[in-house]
Design brief:
single chain, mainly beta, three-stranded antiparallel sheet, 1 helix, about 5% helix, elongated
Length: about 120
């Protein structure tokens, strides 16, 4: 999945990131994204430790050619939709219940509103 710096992000290993800018002009480097990342271990009392500065390439990577735990990844977005089952056994997810009625010419057996995370599942 392509990294989008305009959407919520975190490090590949799950640490929160505060993006400071996406258009840095670094001397001797191509990092265009600058931000702050917790550098201490997470504990159950105080959360993460102090933050440290980190730079990334425009695609969210720290290094060229290999993955790193510090690479930036977008946080999957939660969405809602309607899981609809039809009498003929067909089922699908629609943005709203009325879409299933308008789009499909089938008898609806059940419809339930669900919350799901984009990219998870099958």
């Amino acid at each position: 999945m392509k990294f989008d710096p305009t959407k919520p992000c975190q490090t590949r290993d799950g640490r929160p990131v505060r993006i400071l800018c996406t258009d840095a002009k670094m001397r001797g480097g191509d990092w265009s994204i600058c931000g702050l990342v917790p550098i201490g271990e997470q504990d159950r009392f105080s959360g993460y430790g102090p933050e440290g500065w980190q730079g990334w390439f425009a695609d969210g990577r720290v290094e060229i050619g290999r993955e790193s735990p510090l690479d930036l990844v977008n946080i999957p977005e939660k969405r809602t939709g309607w899981a609809v089952m039809f009498a003929d056994g067909y089922g699908a997810i629609y943005p709203c219940r009325s879409d299933a009625v308008l789009i499909e010419d089938r008898q609806i057996v059940s419809a339930k509103q669900i919350e799901y995370t984009e990219g998870e599942g099958l």
